[in-house]
Amino acid sequence: MKELIFVGRSQDNLELIFMDEDGGEFAVAVDDHIKRSINTNDTASVTTTDSSAGISPRDIQTRIRRGETAAAIANEAGVDATRIERYAGPVLAERSYMAKRASETLVRRPHGEVLLGELATGQLANRGVDTLTLVWDSYRRDDARWTVTVSWASGSGGGLASWIFDPLAHSVVALDDEARWLFDEAAGATKDAKVTEEPKPRLVGLPTVSEPEEELEPPAWAGPGHPTMPVPMPVATPAPAAAADDSPSWDDILFGHRPNDQ
């Protein structure tokens, strides 16, 4: 018989999701028989018995779901770590399941959509990271969303990238610089090189301002509070006198002389 580990409910809450040791997923419909089995008194009796040791299985699973380790909880509670690990298994499987779902989330890129896990693996491979060292994990936040992480080992000591994963919307949002860098395809081959290369100047486009036609700013000295400057006014130049007309007028013809002749 294959042993299955409960990892959570489906998105529509109509099925229970289980996982085997190989990572295979199984779904069981939540019917009346399952509900009656879950609501038996056996669970309550086990919880009551274990609570006498100082920490209940519910508290153990809640803290591990939030990212704490079994060793840290055992050390704080003063109990043997094996007792904590008895209840940690299902929650660790749930965390692994949510990390897997997040890595299968589609993210938009300029050339189309790609899975987050494939994008992260490709970026880290371009950086020279051994992708076999990648470890995906997750823990639940107080707002019911999950923080999903991927860590890796490298010659410089390794790294960690984090996202917020919303299971209902099936979306991820980068939480830190490493996660944002993994979203940037162009940085794949240049992120390490930026440490030694001198920064290069960039050309920045300036907005084009169209100048209004025939509109000139008034000079500063013509504004209020400034002394005025005399402006030479255009001087009317008299038109040159027309040449005297030597043709005889009617006076010359009738009286034999011009009126101005004395």
Strand and helix map with partners:
Layout: E1 5-9, E2 15-19, E3 25-29, H1 32-38, H2 41-51, H3 57-65, H4 70-77, H5 81-103, E4 106-109, E5 112-115, H6 116-126, E6 135-140, E7 146-152, E8 159-166, E9 171-174, H7 177-183, H8 250-255
Antiparallel strand pairs: 1-2, 2-3, 4-5, 6-7, 7-8, 8-9
Notes on the structure:
It is a single chain. This protein is extended. It folds into two domains: 5-102, no CATH class; 104-191, no CATH class. The chain contains eight helices and nine strands. The relative contact order is 0.07. 31% of the residues lie in helices and 18% in strands. Helix 3 packs parallel to helix 5 (81-103) and helix 4 (70-77) packs antiparallel against helix 5. Mean pLDDT is 74; it is low at 42-49, 188-199 and 219-223. It has 262 residues and is an alpha+beta fold.
